Amino acid sequence: MQSYRAPWWLPGGHAQTIWPARLARHHPLPDGRPPRYRRERWTTPDGDFIDVDLLDEGALPGAPMLVLFHGLEGSSQGTYALAFAHWARRAGWHYAVPHFRGCSGELNRGPRAYHSGDHEEIAWILARLRAQQGAPLRVVGVSLGGNALLRWAEEAGESAAGVACAVAALCSPVDLAASGHAIGRGFNRQVYTRIFLRTMVPKALAKLDQHPGLFKREAMRAARDLYTFDNLFTAPLHGFKSTEDYWAQASAKPQLHRIRIPALLLNARNDPFVPASSLPRADAVGRHVTLWQPAQGGHVGFPGGRGHGLGLPEGVMAWMAQQA
């Protein structure tokens, strides 16, 4: 993926983002079989729940486990999650997709939801999977999930090695302020922001029905960008003073030097809402961090010749194999 080049018929970051996310889902995976997940519901330390989708189909005895943390409003059915499921099934690995709260198709019970710096949530999920698996995990985080995963690795420090062999963050907004402002302007605001808010606002309003008084209903209905949504919902519900405070504390970029296990950061420089100017430089991340910043790829795109994103897990997992 370091030298990735997009198909000629998908020019630009928007095309390389939208095609894999929206159109390629209508084309079957190469073997034509969707994964048959097994769902487990876990009680969280604060008495809520999350749903974890597990794929053991074809896993070999003693095989490693690949864990994937999805992005904003993602799930185990996302095109990238299915691509990694296809890779895991073909490789004979175990595969797990933990859903952030409210993302599995059922609203969680508690007032909190999830956010880009949710390293404590990542920590207890990984600890439980590690205990079940009996061996260190290989962990991938996509977009929001990747930033949260990096924050876990930063906070865990040396102890992370007992849980995971390596981590990879794909197209993650490690500078949340830069990405938050970018997605709130122009074409990004009209397309990507609307797509996210289409599910986020109804979930927030349903959360208000569960827990009256969390925020003002009419203000949420009037939200037209993620800055406003985060100011009304994400920041106050998760202990931050404001959107600015949330973005500053949750961003992984300033603390990448604290990571003590192999970590890959893959970001296309034409990602529509992760500006190239916001990406970390090699002299600021520490020796455990590898930066891949190809010119093309879009946001969680990296489509192959037929538009599938199957090359993404191939490249990332080849790097993972080198670390193990």
Q: Helices, strands, pairings?
A:
Layout: H1 12-23, E1 38-43, E2 49-55, E3 65-69, H2 79-91, E4 94-98, H3 119-133, E5 137-142, H4 144-156, E6 164-170, H5 176-183, H6 186-210, H7 217-221, H8 226-237, H9 243-250, E7 263-266, E8 289-292, H10 311-323
Parallel strand pairs: 3-4, 3-5, 5-6, 6-7, 7-8
Antiparallel strand pairs: 1-2, 2-4
If you had to describe this structure to a student in words, what would you say it looks like?
There is one protein chain. By secondary structure, the chain is of the alpha/beta class. Helices cover 38% and strands 14% of the residues. The chain is built from 10 helices and 8 strands. It has helices at residues 12-23, 79-91, 119-133, 144-156, 176-183, 186-210, 217-221, 226-237, 243-250, 311-323, and strands at residues 38-43, 49-55, 65-69, 94-98, 137-142, 164-170, 263-266, 289-292. Strands 1-2-4-3-5-6-7-8 form an 8-stranded mixed β-sheet, sandwiched between helices. Helix 8 (226-237) crosses helix 9 (243-250). The longest helix has 25 residues, at 186-210. The mean pLDDT is 94.
Could you name the key traits of this structure?
2 domains; 10 helices; 324 residues; 8 strands; 14% strand; Rossmann fold; globular; alpha/beta
What is this entry, summarized?
With 324 residues, this protein is an alpha/beta fold. Helices cover 38% and strands 14% of the residues.
Strand content: 5-15%
- Unreliably modeled segments: none
Q: How are the strands of the largest sheet arranged?
A: 1-2-4-3-5-6-7-8
Q: How many angstroms separate the termini?
A: 19 Å
CATH 2nd-level architecture of the largest domain: 3-Layer(aba) Sandwich
Report the top-level CATH class of the largest domain: Alpha Beta
CATH homologous superfamily assignment of the largest domain: Alpha/Beta hydrolase fold, catalytic domain
Oligomer: single chain
- What is the arithmetic mean of pLDDT? 94
Q: What is the third-level CATH name, the topology of the largest domain?
A: Rossmann fold
